[in-house]
Write a structure and sequence with these properties.
alpha/beta; 2 domains; eight-stranded parallel beta sheet; 16 strands; globular
């Protein structure tokens, strides 16, 4: 594993992570390709947007089509047509977020019912490592317990203890050639539990470390306060990953606190609801005020949607349930999010990150959307 921090600006870092299928420039937003595809887009389109790495989900890929099918067809890269780095989540978040499917959790592992057919499934750290070995991802996440905000301290204590126990077992499990493995710290926003989890997880020989169990229902202030001291407590020579964050404000705030990588379905899911992410906030393209608007989604944007199509046309596509509308909004939203992180990286490199962050957040907060378009 080779991770190099090339520049810092305060706690913010710009670096390069080398993997078996290419380099990841950090800070890096990872578009989510849960089942092996970023919805509606070709792999080359995702790459053209500036994304270095995508995320796949071991839970879903295990059930459909199955890791043996993927392995038999050459692994995730050959199977999906994405030649760059792939990170696979362990499936722990899915298991514990779908709490009504849980049958049993103990020190050995977790038993739950598949969301696909209701069949009982048993996952252990070793089984999760085997699934990800067969998938052949570049970065494999450890099995963890991710409680939602608001559970008892006892439940958080159990999550920290079992996440550590499982990480110790998965750390020594076989992995695919060149595959990196990241450990995960839990503990919610409880300072003592989070510190305990970090102190335990960093003793293990992982290639990177993630802060899990945040952005799961706690307040933004609590989340940022926790990241502010927890991120610097992770090893400085390893990548730091915040799991499940994708809004512009959140991305910039965690970069400012020392986070290198993040993922979220927000840009693509927002697109599928008919909304565009812009520097001045969201545009709901279903709104009637865009029916005759000839402007692009954002004047300064160079994405394929903004280069060739008007708000009026995209609104028409969305309201008529045309797939092109979802594709164009997905292209735009991912362009916006990836370019936000590219801008942060460039700003860190030249010592101007704080000015960049302040300017972007001020524009978002002002929310000064243009006056509705009227013909002359």
């Amino acid at each position: 594993m080779s991770f190099v921090v090339e520049a810092t600006d305060g706690a913010a870092r710009a670096g390069v992570l080398h993997t078996a299928h290419g380099t990841i420039r950090t800070p890096a937003f990872m578009p989510v390709g849960t089942k092996g595809t970023v919805k509606t887009l070709l792999p080359e389109e995702v790459r053209a947007l500036g994304a270095d790495v995508i995320l796949g989900n071991a839970y879903h890929l295990h059930f459909r089509p199955g890791e043996d099918v993927v392995a038999g067809l050459g692994g995730l890269h050959a199977f999906t047509g994405w030649s760059g780095p792939i990170l696979t989540d362990s499936g722990g978040f899915q298991v514990f977020s779908l709490r009504d499917t849980l049958a049993q959790v103990d020190d050995e592992g977790v038993t739950f019912r598949s969301i696909y057919d209701g069949a009982l499934e048993h996952l252990t750290p070793e089984r999760v490592a085997e699934i990800q070995l067969r998938l052949g991802s570049d970065i494999a996440m450890c099995l963890d317990i991710c409680p939602p905000a608001g559970v008892s301290r006892r439940e958080h204590e159990d999550a920290v203890r079992r996440t550590q126990l499982w990480a110790e077992r998965q750390a020594g499990a076989p992995r695919a050639p060149g595959q990196l493995r990241f450990g995960i710290a839990q503990g919610g926003t409880d300072p003592e539990l989070r510190a305990r989890s970090i102190e335990g997880i960093v003793t293990l020989p992982f290639d990177g470390f993630a802060l899990g169990g945040l952005a799961v229902g706690e307040s933004r202030a609590e989340m940022l306060e926790t990241v502010g001291w927890a991120a610097p407590a992770l090893p400085a020579d390893r990548p730091r990953y915040f799991m499940g964050l994708g809004d512009a404000e959140g991305i910039l705030e965690v970069i400012a606190r020392g986070i290198d990588m993040f993922d979220c379905v927000l840009p693509t899911r927002t697109a599928r609801t008919g909304s565009a992410l812009t520097s001045r906030g969201r545009l709901n393209l279903r709104n009637a005020r865009f029916a005759r608007d000839p402007r692009p989604l954002e004047d300064s944007c160079e994405c394929p949607a903004c280069r060739g199509f008007s708000r009026a046309f995209i609104r028409h596509l969305v309201n008529q349930n045309e797939l092109l509308g979802l594709r164009l909004l997905t292209l735009h939203n991912l362009w916006f999010t990836v370019r936000l992180t590219v801008g942060a990286r460039d700003a860190i490199a030249c010592g101007a990150f704080e000015r960049y962050r302040t300017n972007v957040l001020a524009t978002l907060a002002a929310g000064r959307e243009e006056e509705p378009w009227h013909p002359n």
